[in-house]
Design goal:
Order of helices and strands of chain B: EEEEEEEEEEE
Largest sheet of chain B: 7 strands, mixed
Radius of gyration of chain B: 13 Å
Strand content of chain B: over 45%
Largest sheet of chain A: 5 strands, mixed
Radius of gyration of chain A: 13 Å
Shape of chain B: globular
Number of strands of chain A: 9
Strand order of the largest sheet of chain A: 1-9-8-3-4
Shape of chain A: globular
Oligomer: heterodimer
Order of helices and strands of chain A: EEEEEEEEE
Largest interface: A-B, 20 and 23 residues
Structural class of chain A: mainly beta
Helix content of chain B: under 10%
Number of helices of chain B: 0
Number of strands of chain B: 11
Amino acid sequence: DAKTTQPTSMDCAEGRAANLPCNHSTISGNEYVYWYRQIHSQGPQYIIHGLKNNETNEMASLIITEDRKSSTLILPHATLRDTAVYYCIVTPSNTGKLIFGQGTTLQVKP
Amino acid sequence: SAVISQKPSRDICQRGTSLTIQCQVDSQVTMMFWYRQQPGQSLTLIATANQGSEATYESGFVIDKFPISRPNLTFSTLTVSNMSPEDSSIYLCSGGREGSEQYFGPGTRLTVT
């Protein structure tokens, strides 16, 4: 079973920041938080991952709470092409195995 | 990063037959996996493809139904055997290095009639 809880769906206005929450209250000390997204009819795309520090790359920022029980993925300026299903996954980094939950369907609207 | 290709991209097969899906990675990866995505659903991990040895299957998946090979670091195959309409899904492979992100292929869309 997936170890994360995400809202089923969210809307965001184009150009605004999209903040996608994820709860992972049972996360273990050696588990990372990974975010992937799946645009319709494509394979999942890696976005970002982190252990306990906040992370930022060219796609997004990942904010992890101090107790590591939840995190937020931030898309700073959402575009229509960011419409996708976003998956938050916790996993030990050395296994590579990804257990997908149902994810959050993000709809970016003009 | 790694680029992953799959063949075929889609197929329509008759029940009772088998289909072998190929997955090729453009760079050496330590890990390769196979997933299934049923219509309207999330991805489900089928197995870990181990180089030169038997794959490691997740609960609910068995070797007789989904034999997997991985003869080298960059290539793997998944066979869907004795197909039924319930096997109609998108099958995806992924690859990556230990401790790093996984990259996914575009998927193979299988329809069983």
